Amino acid sequence: MTETVSSTGTARGRRKGGLKIEQTFSTPGVHPYDELTWERRDVVQTNWKTGATVFEQRGVEYPTTWSVNASTIVTTKYFRGAVGTDAREWSLKQLVDRVVTTYTAAGREHGYFASEKDAEVFEHELTWLLVHQYFSFNSPVWFNVGTPSPQQVSACFILSVDDSMDSILNWYKEEGFIFKGGSGAGLNLSRIRSSKELLSSGGTASGPVSFMRGADASAGTIKSGGATRRAAKMVVLDVDHPDIVEFVETKMKEEDKIRALRDAGFDMDLGGADITSVQYQNANNSVRVSDEFMRAVEDGTTFGLRARDTGEVIESVDARELFTKISEAAWACADPGLQYDDTINDWHTNPETGRITASNPCSEYMSLDNSSCNLASLNLLKFLKDDDTFDAPLFAKAVELIITAMDISICFADFPTEPIGETTRNYRQLGIGYANLGALLMAMGLGYDSDGGRAMAATITSLMTGQSYKRSAELAAVVGPYAGYARNADAHKRVMRKHQAANDVVRTLGVHDAGVHKLATKVWDDVQKLGEKNGFRNAQASVLAPTGTIGFMMDCDTTGIEPDFSLVKFKKLVGGGSMQIVNQTIPRALKKMGYQTESIEAIVEFIAENGHVIDAPGLKTEHYEVFDTAMGARALKPMGHVRMMAACQPFLSGAISKTVNLPESATVEEIEDVYLQSWKLGLKATAIYRDNCKVGQPLSDGKSESSKKDQGLSTATVAPEVVEKVVEVHKPFRKRLPKSRASRTTSFTVGGAEGYMTSGAHDDGELGEVFLKLGKQGSTLAGVMDAFSIAVSIGLQYGVPLETYVSKFTNLRFEPSGLTDDPDIRMSQSLMDYVFRRLALDYLSFEDRSMLGIYSAEERQRHLETGSYEPLEETGGSGELLAETTVGVVEAKATQPTGRDHDDRGDDLETKDTHGAEARQVPAQVTKQEARTSAELLEKITGTAVDSPLCMTCGTKMRPAGSCYVCEGCGSTSGCS
């Protein structure tokens, strides 16, 4: 894509010229904005609990290709200026220009470009990638770059603390400044003397755990003081620290305190009035374990805990007992996680400068103390071609352009402390990564926990990091290697050879991953040659971050390295509210695997109703694994997550932000196995979460037995709320059909079974009777159908809406089922399913049918051609009905059913996505008060609780993203963006 050319310019830092930028994505002579259609939207957000408007900005400008959710998140989170003033940004163009022009100007000033033309091409290429949602910078870039605020571009920070009161108090201060800016930090407390060692004055030291209390209170105060998001922090302690047991048990003991206080009547919900009395809740805790310790665990031998000042062993412990204590604590409260020290430092490019002792709060950035990293993530699904193959060359070109921009940002960036700024400028750590891996694998027909899925993920990750270091070596030829490179050159090149060797042992399984691997192999060859010649511009290049908020900005289905959370989710709609849709990757995956249109429709409808693929009509069991998700009936096994991380870890400079989720029934032994296998497979860090292990974490509903028990409730003693009602009784009225009425007779075949349906209507066209002829006269089947017809006809005449019958009887599944001879209904799950779909098409209006997701063949064809089911005259020919204009509280569009049995599977009905998505099932019981996000929707479908916190901003239930949580309602995260 680029080449280095000679230049005699004198720009600061220039060595041998600048980069020649090839125009790959944007069109020569056309500004990227002019290639898109733009529209104005209104963004209004309300708090679902109070109904109060928390944000409102009308007339914001976005491309029509951007979803309502993406425009909502970007408007509320990233637009700068006071709302309601002329200073407020109102267009995505302004936001992107603010960032991109700053990057381009800094690139010009610091000698990155060979000519002014190359600077202009760089600007257009970067703009094109951003507005087409191919990638996004991390949140601090959008918050700060191009504004009067300090130009902070990093989201990840690592601090350091020494064994002195000055250093400890400085730790509190530095952490506070970082939290104030909405970012997070991590550090290792192992230099602080233990409570078993003496002070120089003769007294006994307090130990690191005691100082954690002060830092935790500080983080909690800043969190409640209105930061951009909750304070996120990581606290690490080495496994050989004498206070390791106290550290391991801190949060577990606090969980016991929460239970006791809750049972005594105190408000211990997250955000409750009394929760602040609980300590250590604002940090993730991790134990830094060594290979020596892990081998002692395997061998069942003792392990020495060492004094901080002298290094001598002051206590020996049974390694297995300590390992079990760690696992028991993780089982009880999800902390601590493990970080594998020797593995981390074996891949360290700068060991001559210092060891890696800690990580950022989400565990993906691991580098020197007092350093930072700016992140950017690519949307992998954008590189999937129409033939469902991954466009590796295009991906590589995007990576090198983005890495160039990320390195430029360090030239103008501001930092919260001078030590952090100095280290970052000297080592220039970057963290390029990706999102949508789960969606990409599904679209390609690859299971997340399969050899094919892991091979594809590994080759893509290898190509990304290899291309990043190749560009880093090219940048070193232009603007010089990082300042600490000469001191660490041998070590850095050794790590590059390790990456290349890991790439060589990847075993591809198909032509698609083989093509990616072939390009990655060539790129790593180039890395060795260019690195030997030029050195490298960056000490680190890649991580896999949670991609919470920026994942929404890119309209990603899945975050970071994660699989899909669930097969059903919410989509925001025109005019506020939301609807349930089935993951749009599913039809593409089914088509890729050879399924025909009729089968795809039937499978998608089944998924919409059930939330999983088990027993989906026509779906082969060997294809089930493609649709495995993080939650639900076919949730991935814990080791499936671990094996995917292990496949990608050798190709990352840093680590992976990801939590291994385990079911509530998981044992301590299973957690021990996850931690042990993670070490053996070469991971740098592992965190686990067992469902419902945190009692202080509120659930949006407590339907599961465990959650009710944990709240001090018994399912046998929970009494329903008694509501006194005054019921006004009306006598039913029957609207009889006229003696002579219009009727329609339809012959049909379902799965080879023939039948006839005669329907009669009132003078106004409203359906009033149905007669079904199936089987021979006098047969049991014929008699049952006669009785059924009479019952339905009387119900219709007494005012039962046809929509109710359709919602009840469509999707009933029994034999005969299969193909029909009706061009509008090619596949039917039963005779009842066919009959009531046909009646809907014959007697219901387009609007009513679209709410039920029932369309004619003509309407489905129009959707394929225009993206809309609606006739052109109904859209005004301009698509204004498709324009997503107003965003409000998440709300399912479902009609209120009447007279239904509680155990009736007919409680489901369908609805339509006004933006052209396929019709999907919506559980009718999912109301505004009950479900607002995909996490809560999944709870409704599965009947089990999704153990996630509520959003501190808007109160809706969050869902996991890496080792953090992200809110689908407003985009807030509990950690890194």
**Spans of 5+ residues with little confidence (pLDDT < 50)?**
1-14, 224-229, 696-729, 873-929
Supply Rg: 30 Å
For the record, the count of structural domains works out to: 3
Mean pLDDT figure:
83
Q: Work out the helicity level.
A: 25-40%
The quaternary organization reads as single chain
Strand content: 15-25%
Structural class: alpha/beta
Distance between the termini: 29 Å
**Major sheet size, sense and barrel closure:** 10 strands, mixed
Please provide a written account of the structure.
There is one protein chain. This protein has 977 residues and is an alpha/beta fold. The chain contains 29 helices and 28 strands. The strands form 9 sheets. Strands 5, 6, 7, 8, 9, 12, 13, 14, 17 and 18 form a 10-stranded mixed sheet that branches. It is globular and about 105 Å long. The N terminus is likely disordered. It comes from Nocardioides aurantiacus.
Main attributes of the structure:
single chain; alpha/beta; Anaerobic Ribonucleotide-triphosphate Reductase Large Chain; ten-stranded mixed beta sheet; 29 helices; 15% strand
Structure described in brief:
With 977 residues, the chain is an alpha/beta fold.
Task: Give the topology, please.
Blueprint: E1 2-5, E2 18-21, E3 38-46, E4 53-63, H1 68-77, H2 92-109, H3 116-131, E5 135-137, H4 139-144, E6 156-158, H5 165-180, E7 184-188, H6 208-224, E8 232-238, H7 244-263, E9 284-289, H8 291-299, E10 302-306, E11 313-318, H9 319-333, E12 337-340, H10 341-346, E13 371-379, H11 392-412, H12 418-427, E14 430-435, H13 437-443, H14 451-479, H15 485-504, H16 511-534, H17 549-553, E15 568-572, E16 578-582, H18 585-592, H19 597-610, H20 638-648, E17 659-662, H21 668-680, E18 685-690, H22 705-710, E19 743-750, E20 753-761, E21 767-773, H23 780-797, H24 802-809, E22 818-822, E23 825-828, H25 831-843, H26 846-852, H27 857-866, H28 872-875, E24 886-887, E25 908-911, E26 920-923, H29 934-942, E27 959-961, E28 964-966
Parallel strand pairs: 3-24, 6-7, 7-8, 8-9, 9-12, 13-14, 17-18
Antiparallel strand pairs: 1-2, 3-4, 5-13, 6-13, 10-11, 12-18, 15-16, 19-20, 20-21, 22-23, 25-26, 27-28
